[in-house]
UniProtKB/TrEMBL annotation:
Pfam families: Maf. It catalyses: dTTP + H2O = dTMP + diphosphate + H(+); UTP + H2O = UMP + diphosphate + H(+). Belongs to the Maf family. YhdE subfamily. Its EC number is 3.6.1.9. It comes from Orenia metallireducens. GO terms for molecular function: dTTP diphosphatase activity; UTP diphosphatase activity. This is dTTP/UTP pyrophosphatase. Nucleoside triphosphate pyrophosphatase that hydrolyzes dTTP and UTP. May have a dual role in cell division arrest and in preventing the incorporation of modified nucleotides into cellular nucleic acids.
Amino acid sequence: MKKIILASGSPRRKSLLEQLGLKFKVVVSDVDESKVKEVDPKELVKRLSYLKATAVAKVEEGVIIAADTIVCLNNKILEKPKDDKEAFEMLSDLSGRTHQVLTGITVIKGEEALTDYEKTDVIFRDLDKREIREYISTGACLDKAGAYGIQDQGAVFVKKVDGCFYNVVGLSLVKLVEMLRLLDIEVALN
Ligand SMILES: Cc1cn([C@H]2C[C@H](O)[C@@H](COP(=O)(O)OP(=O)(O)OP(=O)(O)O)O2)c(=O)[nH]c1=O
C-alpha cells in the first residue's frame, strides 16, 4: 500500500479521511488560490484541487489527495470571506435561497492524475440580521466557503440538502473512494 498524503490544511478534510479509516499524513500546499481565475465554477474547483495536489506531488511521493470547495449562488462564486463584513454579505445573500456547493478533488498516483468534482444543492431558510451577526461572532465563518459550516452551528440555517453531505463539509467520501478505486487504490471498509 502506497503512502497516502492529504494535501490540505482543512481540519474537516483530515477528520473525513480518518472517518474512512485510512492512514495518511498531512502536507499543506502553498498554492495562492486568489491568483487563480476561472469563470466556470466546476472548472475552478477542479483546477484548484489539481494545483494543490501537484504542488505537494513535487515534494512528496505516494498517493496525493487534494480538494477545493466553493459556494455558488446564481453563478456567483463565493469563496472564504475576507472579513466579518463580507461574511455578513454572503450570509444575507444565501438567506432564503438555494445555492450549490462544489468540491473539486484531485488524486495523484505516480504519473497518473484524476480530477473530478461533486455538486450539492443546499437550501437556506430566511435568516434575520441578528442571528447572522450572532453566528459571525462565533468565529466560524472566515475559514469556510460561503461563510458557514453545515457541520457547526450553521446547521440551523439549512432546510434541505440535495446531494452528498460530506461534499459540503469539503470532501465527498463517495466520490473520493470511487476515484481511489479507479486508480486501483483499495479502500477496505474494516
Ligand atoms: C460550505 C462549507 C464549507 N466548508 C469549508 C470546507 C473547506 O475547508 C473550506 C473552503 O476552503 P478551501 O480553499 O476549499 O480549503 P481550505 O483552505 O480549508 O484548505 P486547503 O486549501 O489547505 O485544502 O470551507 C465547511 O467546512 N463547511 C461548509 O458547510
